[in-house]
Design a protein that fits this description.
By secondary structure, the protein is mainly β. The chain has five domains: 31-154, no CATH class; 156-266, Sandwich (Immunoglobulin-like); 271-382; 384-479, Immunoglobulin-like, CATH 2.60.40; 483-666, Jelly Rolls. 35% of the residues are buried.
Length: 677
Amino acid sequence: MGCFKNIFGSGRLAFAFAAVCALAFFAGCSNTSSTDSAGILIETNTGNKGVARICVAPELWDLSAGDTVSLAFANRDTVGDTVFVYESDYRKVVDSSAVLSGMFDMDSVPVGKYDSVTIYGLDGERSYVVDVDVEDGETYMVDVDGVKEISVVKMSAWTGLSDFVYMSISDFNIKTGDSLKLYGTENWGVFEDTLVVSHFEYYDWTNLVMDSVTVASGSALLAFIPYGHYDSLLVTSPNGETKKHKLSFYIEEGKSYYIDSDGARPIAIDITPVREGDAQFYFFIESFEMAEGDTLSMMRSERELNGDTLHETNYFATKVVSAEDVLKGVVKVKNVPGGFYNQLSIRRVSNERGLSNGFAEDSRQWNLSETPIFISSSYVGSLDSVDVALPEGFEDLAKTDEIFVDIPFPIFLPASLDNPCLLDAEDNLIKLEASERDYYADSVLYWGKAPAMKLSGTGKLKFRIIDKCVEDNNLQLQLGTYRNHFSDAEISDSAYARFKDKKDLLGRSRWVDSTDNWFYIPDFKPFSEDGYYMGLSIWFNIDSMQVSEYAQIISAKNDSTGFALQKRGATGAVNLRLDTRTGAYNALFGRANGVLDGTWHNYSFKIHGDSVTTFIDGTLLESRQFDSGEGFAAAFNPSIGYGGLRGGIDEVFFFDGTQSNNWMRLFYALQYAVIKE
């Protein structure tokens, strides 16, 4: 082996190595024969009997991108009357990555003893005299001290990263759902005659799948990628089809680049943040297990390349969850920039509750605008609205300043909805349970409980409908201390024959005649622990001519203590009877005349300490004081129809007795508003 000598000067050139030198082998010969004037046979071999690899610093021959390097030799050996001539002219074009990396890699160089190098450049050609003997299968490193045979160790790792790197969408025909992988190499230097080379496969784990927002932006942000020489890009479609694009560029550490079909060019990045706008949206707290103090962040970007500067505008939607948000069940985020978002993160205040999701599927993109949408972990959708108007006779409730807490209400919603919820005017989330679902009907009866209902002056309650709000399609809400919709009530043959022409109230009702067993509520104590508070609401459809005197519609008694809603003698009236051990006994309250007329009526009452208030069809009957004595704590297991009852019963609710008079009236009005429709 010899050393390279510059025939135009003897200056020593310093250079760095940063490329991959790998081994490749092939063999083959091409022979021609001729005879000279003396009759000597000349055998010319222009093939080779093996190959090697030479790594040279571009500075050594003053190489520039686009230069063509020609490494040549012609060897002559004479055997008898035959002259064997071995010739080779190895050529390779210098690319920009070789110049940037500081390593010009000449692979598959035929074996032989080379004597000249010619560089064909844009400014002409120049030649160097060389003296190097290349042997089969070896790798050589050339520096100012000469030529040295080295070994190569291959690894899969990287030592440094670039700054932000962007990739053209159109140049590589990237579609929504495609995933990207880049392949490259980098040397780690020579250690004791060994060149350590890294071959790496890189993909951006935060943008592994290209979403439609990124595709529409025209460029993909690959974040930070390893520095080194890149030779290929794989684009894999959702169905597994893979396209390979050949690349040839070098990424330097700490610089930003824009990658397109022409290579990678360094760029400057101009970033503008935008945090204010006119858009708004709702975010389901329970769906993402959020707590007070958690921070919700969404971000989108718009990019435009202008010369060597990429202008990026980043839009942010950020909200810290408050205690009030947790109580409401939703986070309302207002005054944020509009547009399509697809990047979501939630920073938790408590440990080991971290969640960071980057949704890439089309269904997980959110178009934020002035018209609010609702976002849960499984659903994104717009919000339809529905109004509930107070019926005639209850307009005065719209003028009160009272806030009605934890009030149940029924509502019919389209059957096309799946496990919906409601948002009230104060943005409280109201979950709904399906009272009864008829798959052939165009609507479904739901019950909900408003945490804090305030009526508008118009007498209308306005709700926004959230589809696919919860996953549980058999939700059971705590609408009172007890409630029964009788959705699964069965009717006996005798009751059906008697009442088949009667209309159910809300969904299915319970219809009985005197031959049916009476119904009771097991293991339930309707009064408070001290026995002084309780509320009740019940609907009934009874004809006085078909029931005996003092027939009990609903009652709860034990040890001579309790209550009974009963027929008043032989009349068509009902009244409430209260019995205590040391106070009032057989005390009658709230007589309602003419209500056992074979149509639906609602009777409700509340006991609050030493007072009792009664209502019929939402109208106050009376409010009176009485001696509650030791209270009603002993009463339990209320029964319906004890003593024989013919008629219908529906929507039985027990409450804790702390409700106001207007609360009791509004509860009736909300039911009647749905019934009359």
